[in-house]
Fold each of these.
Amino acid sequence: NAGVTQTPKFQVLKTGQSMTLQCAQDMNHNSMYWYRQDPGMGLRLIYYSASEGTTDKGEVPNGYNVSRLNKREFSLRLESAAPSQTSVYFCASSERGGGERFFGPGTRLTVL
Amino acid sequence: GQQLNQSPQSMFIQEGEDVSMNCTSSSIFNTWLWYKQDPGEGPVLLIALYKAGELTSNGRLTAQFGITRKDSFLNISASIPSDVGIYFCAGQHHTGNQFYFGTGTSLTVIP
């Protein structure tokens, strides 16, 4: 039982490049989330998926897209990376929309 | 977005000392969570609180849901080196499903 897994662990991009961050959970949770963590800012919600087949914007969605591929997987895509997107990205899941979040280990992204 | 004020921002303590930190909000929450984040890892849930006044323990950790529902407290007793990390609070309004996170308290334990 791995919980929430994320790939890759580290990534360096040049401005304008695109990439997809992958996330999977094996806890049979209904809801999944993408957060970014920046120094002094706490965790901020980018997008979430309350259940399979639905996605909604969070607090900071600009520059990102998401796909809830199935109940287990929720991916985050940067179409044209910008230096402001340099951050640590965490995927999380919860049994239901209002439930406790369980986090993955994070992806450390640097955009040059 | 909702701001949670977490204090202190950082703490340097001797091994064996007790630790207290708190989180305050400008609005009422119906759930408080406390997480710990080790360097290079994701946050791990320590304690969840669901009721005003609730006091819950997890080993040497004790957390309380403030009576006003606008604050929460975390205490660590007899600190040890593995307590080092960043502690985050998170709160949820009764009207929605989203959690809002504090900016963290960085704890350093000096052996």
Amino acid sequence: DAGVIQSPRHEVTEMGQEVTLRCKPISGHDYLFWYRQTMMRGLELLIYFNNNVPIDDSGMPEDRFSAKMPNASFSTLKIQPSEPRDSAVYFCASRRGGLGGELFFGEGSRLTVL
Amino acid sequence: EDQVTQSPEALRLQEGESSSLNCSYTVSGLRGLFWYRQDPGKGPEFLFTLYSAGEEKEKERLKATLTKKESFLHITAPKPEDSATYLCAVQVQGGSEKLVFGKGTKLTVNP
């Protein structure tokens, strides 16, 4: 299995630009999660989907952030407009349904907003 | 508010020097506690799940234990390849699939 695939691995952009991060979960996994990691706040859940439906987006910082999952094999996290405080590593993770928290994480997308 | 606190923030050990990492939690109701390992530039990698006080899980040089207020990750005779950041996370009762993570303990094992 190829694992969770994220792109881009690194993104450097100017303040005010739109940023789109992409994720391909592991085939057969029912849940997809977007996390953000910073030194100050650690890993924080932004949003998660179950069977392509957003279930909990309470961690999305503000309206500048949006996430979609048009099908079972693809999700995007968009930031528009981006700000320097959005600089972080963004992780996508997926897992099967049922009991347990064994998340499979991608390698992350490191975002730097200048 | 559900909280997870890990200590110490960083730990340096000599190869073969056993020690323990702590994860204390304050939650309304624990559904499960999870340990992950994170190497630099990588995503977290799952290690263990613990569901109830008294439960223990082992994998190679690592053993995780759980009480009603905290969990320990015991590292026996560590090797340099055990160097990583170890993350603890809790899942709370109530139906959400959300994991709340601690900030981690950065472990360095010197040869």
